[in-house]
Amino acid sequence: MKSVAVVGANLAGGRAVESLRQAGFDGRITLIGEEPWRPYERPPLSKEVLWDPANVPDNFFLHDEAWYAANRIEMRLGTRAEALDLAASAVRLTGGDLVQADRILLTTGGSARKLNMEGADAANVHYLRTRDDATRMATDLRDGARIVIIGMGVIGAEVAASAVKLGCRVTAIEPLAAPMIRALGPQFGQWLGEEHRQRGVDTRFGRGVNAMKVLDGRVTQVELDDGSLVDCDAVVVGVGIVPEISLARDAGIVTNNGIIVDRRCRTSNENVFAAGDVAEQESFFGGHIRQETYQNAADQAQAAALAVLGQGVDYCKPVWYWSDQFDLNIQFCGHIPVQAEVTLRGDMASNQFTAFFQSGEMIEGILTVNRAPDMGIGKRLIERRANAQAAQLADADVSLREILKQAG
Description:
11 helices; Enolase-like, domain 1; alpha/beta; 3 domains; 31% strand
């Protein structure tokens, strides 16, 4: 094998080309990206980039330009991959250029899901997925601005916290009963909703959006499904992403809610691999899942790079993510089983606690709030499918390391 093309110059794509070189691959590597930027970190988009867009953190980019030159990574940025020509072993770019590649790794991620209503594309309606999105949004998050946030998943909740930090008057609209409820479950979703309320967010849970009122090309009011109107200077929409599966689908590769891959990160075509937000993979707990997390994008991309080189790979990890909101560091690993038994270690009132979600005695999910050291061991408990008694988990005098040791 002499050449590899990586489509998607994001975190996953950046980690993939890095791993190819670290593993000793000396052939041609082409990194193709629709954005003009070299690979960067997405977590700061909802925080530091909004707070001060003129001063992006030093570690925002994965590497400086010199690193890509030194490692002979051919960068094709600001250009779109239009099609996979599998018969010719190539990627066709906008304009007709062909990038030849013996193997192709798709790290195409996704695009922000848009609202399907009049006004959804107004100048002051923002969707957060890229650096340019964050820079545009920051211009509207000024002190005293009235900001409506539609959708309180991770992105919506983080932007709400950033907007409050910047002095905005924030109204959050979420059709479910609490923020991040799918990720945290009802008990801890309600806890997080109360934290937002206490910090000044006007929360409207259990409410949907009927319409947006537009004047001179800008949304001035959002109409809720109970008929109430919320005045606004800008709207932020966070209702998930649409995975970018079209390249694979149009080439005849099997897709569903993502590009379906096996535990070697290989698609239904033996020379095409996929990783990151776009990959629908085997779930640690059975079935299939598409993970939209920083850690999966980094880890799966590294595994996929090794698989591209023919090395033995068996990638299947539980979900792990974190979210920083206000003074809260929230981390979660695993999943919340149906009819989960919940055990708490620490005090929710102090915002320093760890929650365990069990099926029988098996620990299947762990949530930490401002207790990051617990997550270091907690992830290993999940990966080992450890069993523990609820009384042990609740007792702060019983170390989690001891419980891990008992699990073998």
